[in-house]
Amino acid sequence: MKPSWVGIAMCAAGCSVSGLASAQTPVQSAEVTVTRLECGTSAAPADVARFSDTFAYDGLKVQLVFSCYLIKHGSDYLVWDAGNPVGNTPTAPKTSLTDLLAKLNVPVEQVKYLGISHYHGDHTGQASQFPKATLLIGKGDWDALTDPKPAQGVNPAPLAPWISGGGKVEAVTGDRRDVFGDGTVVVLTMPGHTPGHTSLLVKLKEKGSVLLSGDLAHFHENYDGNGVPSFNTNRADSLASIDRFKQIAKNLKATVIIQHDARDVSKLPAFPAAAR
Ligand SMILES: [Zn+2]
User: Fold this and answer.
1) Residue 241 alpha carbon to ligand 1 centre in Å
2) How many angstroms separate the alpha carbon of residue 231 from the centre of ligand 1?
3) What pLDDT digit, counting tens, does each position of 2-59 carry?
4) Nearest-10 Cα torsion for 213, 114, 93, 106
5) CA dist 49 → 44, 191, 221, 225 (Å)
6) In angstroms, what is the span from residue 55 Cα to ligand 1's centroid?
7) Taking the model in full, what pTM does it have?
8) Fewer C-beta neighbours within 10 Å, C or N terminus of the chain?
């Protein structure tokens, strides 16, 4: 009997395992949305000189904000960044992430993933509100957080539920992690600000591709001029990441959202509305 090499060859071109009919079927149909969550209270425009190691921003003041995001994928949710902690500090958010989610009728238990762009305290502050979520974090940052002697600026406390072994962790390696396996929500490895810094790509049906920066850049001038903050962990990696990020943005015609820049807040609908 001859082997059915014809079927095998056709399947290599994209059919399903069970037959040859589904080559034209869309890969995914889960509804994907993005909602911005206020994750800190901003004071007046801040002096941003320290965000350049070439004295590019001396005298410049920028209104910074703190942003988290809720990504809906079908009936699953991913929270991207956990912002400042609630409490009495000047930048503490007025409403906790849990309370914001309650206003959207999203139970905390439905948050399957907590994606953290990097280990700085204004991105991890409310992480412990989601101890059942799988933590998605760049391998370089995870290694820094779990080092017996964490370096300066590395603050493991907010991620204690995972570091202690109580929560599931997926440390992102390679250039990306396709979270739901259909290409709609992708963690992009963008090292430099920290060793395992990541950004997030979300592909929406109506709005198209959206890129959430993490701290790849902190404000427009920083992004436009390839500025490297003096406190980044690696200058060469920072420049390589910003170059890659810009090429991705161009190729996908993406909406770029610099998470800390107040001028980018209006690129998404105001809470509780979501971009689709
Ligand atoms: Zn940062």
Assistant:
1) 15
2) 9
3) 433 433 334 444 344 433 444 444 455 899 999 999 999 888 999 999 999 999 999 9
4) 120
5) 15, 22, 11, 14
6) 19
7) 0.89
8) N
